[in-house]
Amino acid sequence: MLKTAFIDKDDYSKSDAAAVAADQVFHQQQAVISIPKRFSIPAREIWLLQDRLEARRGKKPLRLLANKRFRAAYDFLLLRRDSGENVGGSATGGQNSKRLTRTDNRL
């Protein structure tokens, strides 16, 4: 099993710590049940994409909208918010909902 102390070190960024946490969760679940890569890889991408939803400047938000898993990550973030988890300002609507509407209309 991976040690949680690895995540607590100050020399890891928030995204690196999230990636390590995702690896730990999938590693622990593999001991209980087999998760095919066709499910674990997209789930991990969706999970890690949620931290990137906070980007609001420059071209990052536009690149994020182009990601094929963007909508799934945003919807999952809203579910987390609605369940009472503190997800920060990334799921509060505002600019994100306007961008989503424009993107959805193009599809």
Keywords summarizing the entry:
mainly alpha, cca-adding enzyme, domain 2, globular, disordered N terminus
Structure, explained:
This protein has helices at 5-8, 14-32, 37-52, 60-66, 70-82, 95-106. The protein is mainly alpha-helical and 107 residues long. It has one domain: cca-adding enzyme, domain 2 (Orthogonal Bundle), CATH 1.10.3090. α2 (14-32) packs antiparallel against α3 (37-52). The longest helix is centred in the first third of the chain and has 19 residues, at 14-32. The radius of gyration is 15 Å and the shape is globular. Residues 1-5 have low confidence and may be disordered.
Q: Using the 3D structure, state the CATH architecture.
A: Orthogonal Bundle
CATH class: Mainly Alpha
Q: Tell me the span between the first and last alpha carbons.
A: 43 Å
Specify the biggest β-sheet.
Answer: none
- Count of alpha/pi helices: 6
Taking pLDDT < 50 over at least 5 consecutive residues as the criterion, the unreliable ranges are: 1-5
How many β-strand runs? 0
| CATH topology term | cca-adding enzyme, domain 2
> Which radius of gyration do the C-alpha atoms yield?
15 Å
In terms of quaternary structure, what is this?
single chain
Elements, N to C (H/E): HHHHHH
- What percent strand? under 5%
Alpha-beta content class: mainly alpha
Summed over residues and divided by their number, the pLDDT gives a mean of: 76
Kindly state the percentage of residues in helix: 55-70%
CATH superfamily: cca-adding enzyme, domain 2
Number of domains: 1
What is the 3D shape? globular
